[in-house]
Design brief:
four-stranded antiparallel β-sheet; 40% helix; Arc Repressor Mutant, subunit A; globular; Jelly Rolls; alpha+beta
């Protein structure tokens, strides 16, 4: 069963499909569909054969790995409008390197890898769109690796807050769309450390916390803290 006309119009807004000729677009969608997951329902597990990639329509997907001791390490948190697992179609073995689970009720589109790669061979536009996406993700991963290996927990948390601002007001807000434990895992800090840093920032008058909304009272001061941390960790940088 293919995706309905209504959803086709929605998908046409995504950069991967925006400039595709109708024939190529329809060929991809002929082997695609919309599916839904309940909270905590597993989409796939690490090592499963990867024959599809996905685009979140609503809700949220957590990508994570599990240690031999059973501890979960959050790799990424995927929200509406974001794709994931498309790079796996180019990997040797074509098996998912992580687990995927819905953090709440979630709708997502899935696309057949074979149908998609067939169109990649025919469309330069699609190839360049895919390359641009992967380049952006690679840059993000390199930044994340730098922060994990160079900066301390406070720097990583402040950087996360500044990178998830919802508006451009004088005192911008950040809506936490994932649980604090999930965000802490992604930043490679413990939930206790996460809470301790947030409490300290609040006491210093840099942020306020109301439910899941964080208001950055002094965003410039937060940026200064990151700048100071950067100059201390990397001496000689201008």
């Amino acid at each position: 069963m293919s995706i309905s006309k209504l959803f086709q119009q929605e998908l046409r807004q995504h950069y991967l499909f925006r400039r595709l000729p109708d024939e190529a677009f329809n060929n991809i969608l002929s082997q695609s569909n919309l599916t839904s997951l309940r909270r905590n329902e597993t989409l796939f597990e690490q090592g499963d054969e990867a024959s599809r990639f996905f685009l979140v329509r609503s809700g949220q997907i957590m990508l994570f790995q599990t240690s031999p001791e059973g501890n979960e390490k959050v790799v990424d948190i995927i929200g509406p409008g974001q794709t994931f697992a498309e790079a796996v179609m180019f990997m040797e073995g074509k098996r998912f390197p992580v687990n995927a689970r819905a953090t709440g009720n979630t709708e997502l589109f899935y696309f057949d890898n074979n149908a998609f790669t067939e169109q990649l061979h025919k469309s330069n536009t699609l190839c360049f769109a895919m390359m641009a996406d992967m380049s952006t993700r690679l840059k993000g991963l390199l930044t994340e690796i730098s922060e994990l290996t160079i900066y301390n927990a406070k720097h990583r948390l402040i950087s996360y807050l500044l990178g998830h601002i919802n508006d451009l007001q004088e005192q911008p807000t950040v809506k936490l769309t994932a649980t604090k434990s999930m965000i802490a895992s992604k930043l490679s800090i413990t939930p206790e450390t996460f809470s301790r840093i947030m409490s300290k920032l609040k006491k210093e008058g840099l942020i306020t916390i109301e439910d899941e909304t964080i208001t950055l009272i002094q965003p410039d001061k937060l940026k200064e803290i990151i700048g100071e941390s950067f100059s201390k960790t990397k001496p000689g940088c201008m």
